[in-house]
Prior knowledge:
Distance between the termini: 9 Å
Largest sheet: 6 strands, parallel
Bound molecules: farnesyl diphosphate
Number of strands: 6
Strand content: 5-15%
Shape: globular
Order of helices and strands: EHHEHEHEHHEEHH
CATH topology: Undecaprenyl pyrophosphate synthetase
CATH class: Alpha Beta
Number of domains: 1
Amino acid sequence: xxxxxxxxxxxxxxxxxxxxxxxxxxxxxxxxxxxxxxxxxxxxxxxxxxxxxxxxxxxxxxxxxxxxxxxxxxxxxxxxxxxxxxxxxxxxxxxxxxxxxxxxxxxxxxxxxxxxxxxxxxxxxxxxxxxxxxxxxxxxxxxxxxxxxxxxxxxxxxxxxxxxxxxxxxxxxxxxxxxxxxxxxxxxxxxxxxxxxxxxxxxxxxxxxxxxxxxxxxxxxxxxxxxxxxxxxxxxxxxxxxxxxxxxx
Length: 249
Ligand code: FPP
């Protein structure tokens, strides 16, 4: 891709992650599933630090999907309580490290106390610019498209928008991650090779990396190896390699 004289690793600006495998990790250690989720929080902390120190500008973590409501009520309840506890405990450190927090997902479906902690964390860290940490909670890619289409529909009905003006950039501005670049790299742990209704619109040109490592075992070292691998990939966005050389990609 590059001659050795101008060789430079490409860095991803936005990394998205599907943190899968907490339950199997707990199982393999003879522990209850909630112990897997707690171990998952530790892994998330290490990955957040590693991304910030490798100049990733946006990190999006899939913490709870629209489909996760189907889990046994006891597990859903434990996860909601864990999210409240994690926000209470970690927001100071995130703030001190210059990290801005943002949440995407169907907030109305979440417990009031969690919604309050989310709003407080967003307000507190709003001015931070080192890295944006997006937590997807009660999020689904299909939900995201529905909310975008609904908001666009309201504008059309109000007479503020002509349907002929609906194009990619308009939809872009109505997606949950509006204002942030699309992910350059998606990492999914836990062995499955699918997107599972994550960022369906945003992942159009994203490089995908799947690892069998269970999320609680995923660490800064493996992340570093994945980022180095990404650095050697050639992204064409539908064009041809010669065009990329011309634009310096
Ligand atoms: C997948 O494991 C993980 C989840 C459903 C979400 C919970 C994630 C965490 C607690 C980690 C980080 C949290 C934050 C707030 C940053 P699984 O239960 O689907 O595992 P399995 O496929 O092995 O059963």
